[in-house]
Amino acid sequence: EVRLVESGGGLVQPGGSLRLSCEASGFTLGDHYMEWVRQAPGKGLEWVGRSRDKTKSYTTDYAASVKGRFTISRDHSQNSLYLQMNSLKTEDTAVYYCARSGLLGATGGHYCDYWGQGILVSVSS
Amino acid sequence: DIQLTQSPSFLSASVGDRVTITCRASQDINIHLGWFQQKPGKAPKLLIYGASTLQSGVPSRFSGSGSGTEFTLTISSLQPEDFATYYCQQLQCCPLPFGGGTKVEI
């Protein structure tokens, strides 16, 4: 059974840093693209970033709103995905979801087919 | 960057109704579009990928269509468990934005 469990959220002051973890089980992390998606309170979903699989050398892409401040990394020995968040702003307050991105369909697209339960990050003074 | 515009933002419907949600992309994205359902306090759930392919385990009353810049999600006969918020997402990297969401209410 595929399972994703996020941890590391909490309250942080503006300008501070936080690292989220996503522990994966039930599949081989290195074989899959992984995504971070967030949702501010009462708002819609916002894609944060992507980590590609080993065939793409785990390269990453980020939304413009977080580029240069957030970094996605992996530790395959721990079967975990991370989101390092620096220079946090109040507008980064959100529930952060880790998602596995499965290769689905004939056109080879990667779609978030499994999601964690989400973890709340609050940025406030 | 590609933007997605979903309509309507809110939709009032009754059990048994046929419901259609539209997602428009600012550029041609072929069929690289997914639809998600989200219930309050829960993670999103993938319903449809490749614009029209039903994800495993999703009831057949859900269907998707479209290509290029215009896409639709249809629920043929709304059930009580379908009251939720629906999002489209374009998957032509990158970025990978979501639409603004459509809340389906009773």
Q: What is the makeup of the main sheet of chain B? A: 6 strands, mixed
Q: State the low-pLDDT regions of chain A, or none.
A: none
Number of helices of chain B: 0
- Main sheet record of chain A: 7 strands, mixed
Strand arrangement in the largest pleated sheet of chain B? 2-10-9-4-5-6
- Level of helix content of chain B? under 10%
Q: For the record, give the distance between the C-alpha atoms at the N and C termini of chain B, rounded to a whole number.
A: 35 Å
**Could you say which structural class the secondary elements and strand pairing of chain B correspond to?**
mainly beta
- How many strand segments of chain B? 10
Task: Determine the strand fraction of chain A and express it as a percent band.
Answer: over 45%
Q: Would you tell me the structural class of the helices and strands of chain A?
A: mainly beta
In terms of per-residue confidence, which ranges of chain B show pLDDT below 50 for 5 or more consecutive residues? none
> What's the rounded overall pLDDT mean of chain B?
96
List the chains of the largest interface with their residue counts: A-B, 26 and 28 residues
List keywords for this structure.
A: 125 residues, mainly beta, 7-stranded mixed beta sheet, globular, B: 106 residues, 6-stranded mixed beta sheet, 4-stranded antiparallel beta sheet, 10 strands, 46% strand
Describe what this molecule looks like in 3D:
The complex is a heterodimer of chains A (125) and B (106). Chain A contains no helices and 11 strands. By secondary structure, chain A is mainly beta. In chain A, strands 2, 4, 5, 6, 9, 10 and 11 form a 7-stranded mixed beta sheet that branches. A 4-stranded antiparallel beta sheet of chain A has the order 1-3-8-7, with no helix packed on it. Chain A is globular, with a radius of gyration of 14 Å. Chain A starts with a strand and ends with a strand. In chain A, 38% of the residues are buried. The model of chain A has no long low-confidence stretch (mean pLDDT 96). Chain B is mainly beta. Chain B has strands at 4-7, 10-12, 19-25, 33-38, 45-49, 53-54, 62-67, 70-75, 85-90, 102-105. Chain B has a 6-stranded mixed beta sheet with strand order 2-10-9-4-5-6, with no helix packed on it. Chain B is globular. The chains are: A mainly beta (125), B mainly beta (106). The interface between A and B is medium-sized, with 26 and 28 residues.
